[in-house]
Amino acid sequence: MTAPAVWVENISKKFDRVKAVDRVSFAVQKGELFGIIGPDGAGKTTLIRILTTLLLPDEGKATVAGYDVISSYKKVRHLIGYMPGRFSLYQDLSVEENLEFYATVFGTTISENYELVRDIYKHLEPFKNRLAGKLSGGMKQKLALSCALIHKPELLFLDEPTTGVDAISRIEFWDMLKRLKKRGISIIVSTPYMDEALRCDRVALMQEGRFLDIDEPEKIIGKYDKKLYSIHTTEPYLLMENLRENVDIQSVIPFGDHVHFTTRKDVEIDPGDLQEALIAKGFKDIAVKIIKPGIEDCFMDLMNIEPQ
Amino acid sequence: MTDDGSNIIVVKDLVKKFGTFTANDKLTFEVRKGEIFGFLGANGAGKTTALRILCGLSRPTSGFVHVAGFDVSRHPEEIKKRIGYMSQKFSLYEDLTVEENFTFYGGIYGLSRKQIKEQTNFLLENLKFHKSKEILIRALPLGWKQKLAFSVAIMHRPKVVFLDEPTGGVDPVTRRQFWKMIYDTASSGITVFVTTHYMDEAEYCERISIMVDGRIKALDTPASLKQRFNAINIEEVFLKIARN
Amino acid sequence: MKRFLGFIKKEFYHIFRDFRTLMVLFGIPVAQVLIFGYVISNEIKDVKIAIFDQSKDEVTQQISSKILSSGYFLLDRNLSSQKEIEPVFKAGYVREVVVFEPDFAKRLKSEGKATIQLIADASDANIANQVVSYTSGIIFDYVKLLNMEEQGAAGINTEVRMMYNEGLEGAYMFVPGTIALVLMLVSAMMTSISIAREKEMGNMEVLLVSPLKPIQIIFGKVMPYVVLSFVNAVIIIFLGHIVFGLPVNGSLALLLGVNILFILLALSVGILISTVSNSQLVAMFISAFALMMPTILLSGFIYPIENMPEVLQWLSCIMPPRWFISAIRDIMFKGAGLLYIWREVTILTAMTVFFIAMSIRKFSVRLE
Predict the structure, then answer these.
(1) How many CA atoms lie within 13 A of C113 on its CB side?
(2) In chain A, fewer beta carbons within 10 Å around the N or the C end?
(3) C156 lies in a domain?
(4) What average pLDDT values come out for chain B (244 residues) when binned by 10 residues?
């Protein structure tokens, strides 16, 4: 039996009086794509820095590929690739020079491991003489990933790789991660975008230093125990104000051109009746449905349950 | 075609070049008074450049750009008095209290002491935050900082407020509270011009424009765009436009 | 080793792509030397002098006319009493007063020697220095001529008196001081800033996680600046020599050796600063206040150490530039050898070891 990619037991870390990470435990299996999902300030970066041996935990124990992150930090550093939140590129070096630099630092060359990064780097090759500082967010992100991969790490730690990056680059990025996973690389990735949870094998929902839940995305959704209604509308805010007047309705949350709501305990609303009632009130293009929740619904639900 | 009174922003054939690179290529659009206008685009599409021009921080290479009734090239100072600006990067002073920040920014916009007091109380009460105005900004979570920064940006009652990715990294609940603020602001008569990477937020806008490579490729209400591109949501619209 | 070379290559890219850094690295030293050099080598021409001739004989008139016909000097006025000397200087135009003692020719004849006093306004030490040396030169020429004509050793004794700055301290201090300042600036400030930049931009995180050892990271950052600093020191010495004939009387090898020692010292200070600063701005402030100000104020660069209050004199002893400046002054002007400056070299070496040890201890393998 080989060691799990990451194994964490009761890790805590305080900065001044703020508990950035609060008694977190989890394990990531080899070859798994594991997501840490949560808003800014949830403690994602601190947790990743502890696992990449950059910070010492106040309490608890953690191993990466079987090596202790405190006592065997040098071993760990040889095995991992790390892409910090700010991408860590040298703005005044060209695309190629950046990659070359990281390759030499890790004692390898671009050509030796080109195979692994080709998929990603081919998008950048036409711009290989451009300075990294002049790249768009999406291209910076691809270059940073190439740099983190150039030494063929067993594990990849990515801290908010998709933050501030446009929707298309985000989708392309997750496709790349999927292909890397197929090559057997274990990937731990953090993100504030709830919709990206579905791209992971398993996710931890993180808020204020703690894990609200940790499971496969589908299972997290399965645990949602309320009936969730969704109304399609062109006037979400007007509709929400209307729904909030209804005593049977508990929480009303806008989701783009839909409004999601739940009802009070033991109360059921017939979608058809509500739809008619709303149309009678003058709403147009209304469609009321009972739906399966998304991760964002679950996250907000769990946020409310958790005692502050 | 100039301002007939119903548009707060009028842009016609806006071109901005940096050397040989064209960041904005003949942008033409209007924003109506009191509207929530979503300004979408991929990274590097030229959103930031356009935003800077609209705020009077940068001059267009050519084209007609009027904001709040003034030409951006000739009267940028008049424009700056009439707009509010807030971005994810711009934040309040960390080492000042909430109230001190309000007082400071109110002073910048030349509000009287009485106005500052009234506006501070009004805005903080809306946020249900008036009891905590002695707290240092540093001690607040990101979501609160963003909501307060937004309040500061509208405290001088600008004609239009520019929000540059205001909700980046904010938790889902706060994100929605933030949009509630945007709605209230717009219904009080302040035009909201907002950029975002969250496609579900684009749906909350009355109209959105989508920029690709320096050009506006689509501009309409979210519903019409979805219909036109036969898409179930704006994300799909966005992908279809950007990939072509 | 290959990792290390790759690192250094990258560092040079940073330096050469940043025009402002390059300006700081090479522009400032050259500008400083040229400015100081210009101030010091200010050409002597039509300098106004006054003559107080208490003898008014054939010899004094000959000397006076020789001085005035040289083209360097203009007679502002003749003085008739000792009391007029001070007001003449106070009025500001006259740079030098030439005083012949009474019965000049008679004494020269009977006693074989006579005295000329040269009083100069040394509030501008450099000009005073040159004015006096030109005047003395002219007088010596005359003496030589006199000696050739008449047998029997005639000696004219020139007494030089510098008013307002008797010791003439400071004039030659500028070049050694500039070298100290520039080496501190380039070595300590630039290294601390460039290491802090890696932290600020988040690159340090990735480097720490890489197999590079901390010592490799440090030496990789520092190495290019060792080279650049050394080139700078050579440029300054060379310019000093060309622009205003600064001598290098001692061994050039020793001079360069002491420079290298000081560069290492400055770099280790820079590394130490970078370990306590997380941003370029902080690194810059610490460098400016902890290094530049003491280098300028407490090293004897501008204010002579002997004239400082005792507390500051003690304080100056822990300022590395003080020992460095003293050492290279001795080498350049006095032609001193290692034996003569052993004390300075020992102190500098000890300081270097101390700072290197401190910075290695302080350099963290983590982010905290």
Answers:
(1) 6
(2) N
(3) no
(4) 74 92 92 94 85 90 93 90 84 87 89 92 89 85 88 93 88 88 92 90 92 92 92 89 80
Residue C12 lies in a domain: yes
Which residue ranges form the domains of chain B, and what is each CATH number? 7-243 (3.40.50.300)
> Cβ A138–B169 below 8 Å, yes or no?
no
Least Cα separation, residue A301 to chain B (angstroms): 10
Query: Tens of pLDDT along A193-232?
Result: 888 999 999 999 999 899 999 999 999 999 998 899 999 8
CB B61 within 8 A of CB B16: yes
pLDDT(A83) > 50 = yes
Cα–Cα nearest to B51, from B106, B11, B82, B1 = B11
What is the residue whose two structure tokens read 């037991």? Answer: A9
C107 and C248 fall within a common domain: no
Which residue range forms the structural domain that includes residue C132?
Answer: 47-145
Task: Please count the helices (runs of H) and the strands (runs of E) in chain A.
Answer: 10, 14
For chain C, residues with pLDDT lower than 50 are 41, 152-153, 164-171
Task: Answer whether C220's CB lies under 8 Å from C7's CB.
Answer: yes
Based on the fold, state whether residues C207 and C80 are members of the same structural domain. Answer: no
Give strand pairing partners of C100.
C53, C116
Does an interface of 3+ CB pairs under 8 Å exist between C and B? Answer: no
Q: Does C367 touch chain A (CB under 8 A)?
A: yes
Handedness of CA B50, B51, B52, B55 (dihedral sign): positive
Classified as helix, coil or strand, B95 is coil
C278 shares a domain with C347:
yes
User: What CATH number does residue C87 fall under?
Assistant: 3.40.1710.10
- Residues 6 or more apart whose CB falls under 8 angstroms from that of B223 comprise A234, A257, A285
Q: Is residue C162 in some structural domain?
A: no
Amino acid letter for position C180:
A
Residues C204, C231 within the same domain = yes
Q: Which long-range contacts (CB under 8 A, 24 or more apart) does C31-39 make?
A: C32/C178, C32/C181, C32/C182, C33/C175, C33/C178, C33/C235, C33/C236, C33/C239, C33/C240, C33/C243, C34/C239, C34/C243, C36/C174, C36/C175, C36/C178, C37/C239, C37/C240, C37/C243, C37/C244, C38/C243, C39/C126, C39/C174
- Residue C210, burial from CB neighbour count under 10 angstroms (0-12, 13-18, 19+): buried
Task: Quote the pTM value.
Answer: 0.77
Cβ(B152)–Cβ(B99) under 8 Å? Answer: no
Indicate the number of domains in chain C. Answer: 2
Q: Tell me A131's DSSP state.
A: B
Contact criterion met (CB < 8 Å) for B222 and A39: no
C125 and C239 in a single domain? The answer is no
Among A54, A104, A107, the residue with its CB nearest the CB of C367 is A54
* CB contact at 8 A, A306 and A235: no
Crossing angle of helices B113-126 and B98-108, in 10° steps, is 130
- Where is A27: in which H helix or E strand? strand A18-28
Decide if B179 contacts A254 (C-beta within 8 A). yes
pLDDT tens readout for residues C216-265: 888 888 888 888 889 888 888 888 787 766 778 888 899 999 999 999 99
Q: Is C13 in contact with A82 (Cβ distance < 8 A)?
A: no
H helix or E strand, kind and range, residue B30: strand B21-32
Q: Measured between alpha carbons, how far is B161 from B36 in angstroms, rounded to an integer?
A: 10
Same domain for C54 and C18, yes or no, is: no
B46: left (phi over 0), alpha (psi -120 to 50) or beta: left
Flag whether C159 is in a domain.
no
Q: What are phi and psi of A245, to 5 degrees?
A: -75, -15
Nearest to C323 by CA among C303, C295, C302: C295
Judge if C220 and C305 occupy the same domain.
yes
Chain A: give the shortest CA distance to residue C8, in Å.
Answer: 10
Looking at the structure, do residues C20 and C83 belong to the same domain, yes or no?
no
